[in-house]
């Protein structure tokens, strides 16, 4: 009896103590003791609240602090320049496999490819420097030397996983690609969007029935984005003799081969920027990757046949293009066109819209707009782009170039 009374009193004391510990007042005091915010967060909530909100909404904001990427040197508004600029090397600390893949693909060479273009040396800095208003705004996805690291857009990875949420879901959405892959010289977004693939996706965006950009170009999430033909649809060697003859003409016009067919100083730049496929093995490897991607939905024979047709479009477009190049080159040889001061090669397709004659302006459009749209439209299953924006425009431009050549010759005879 006595022992039972003692036990009851002890239980009552425990209950009272527990009730005190878990009272609303005590519980509120405990829950209010949140982890201390970093100095970065506390300051930037006042200065850039939107950035803080984005960062804390993402996965990185749950595990990292601003200083994980920007370092600790920046302490106040007066020394903001001391904040470290993230680079792919920064991202590799947590994502080594993805960064290694990225460095094997063409995105990593985007900045180098832009800088390799002679045209860029004639442009205002905000186009090809660090202003991110022209070419540089998209080509910032590439790795840059330290001298080219600017205050914005230097991370490369943040071109697709945009600041500061760095969302994986965003980068997996085909709309993440549209800012860069649209417009004048490579409208892949519009091509895909208005193709049957893109139409199905627009109707059924969540079923997975239609392939998106990432399905074909980033299989299994691989960041080694690259295609067999590359941006300029140029490859060497070429087994078809006639096609090889046309290809050599094109490579001379971009200054990669000299008049004797020997590699120039530009050859190495084109090679480093991966603007052309220079071995059969390299081409076949990337073609096989695309064939595998297509065969996930289509039969392998159907996929192979359609890729082969794309190759034929390039071959036939190259014939029209090369003949027009030879027409313009003859004008230089006849003295009807004068090599511009400072140009080593003429015609020089890599001068783009800096071309100095009407015929060469047409040649530039054939190179960077019409030919691109013809072969890219074919590979993206967009008949209108392939036919009317590509192939038809190639034929029109070729006729205008020949007319201009005839006009210059008539004017010379009249003199």
UniProtKB/TrEMBL annotation:
Keywords: Signal. InterPro entries: Multihaem_cyt_sf (IPR036280), Multiheme_Cytochr_ET (IPR051829). Residues 1-28 form the signal peptide. PANTHER family: C-TYPE POLYHEME CYTOCHROME OMCC, DISSIMILATORY SULFITE REDUCTASE SIRA. This is Cytochrome C. It comes from Geomesophilobacter sediminis.
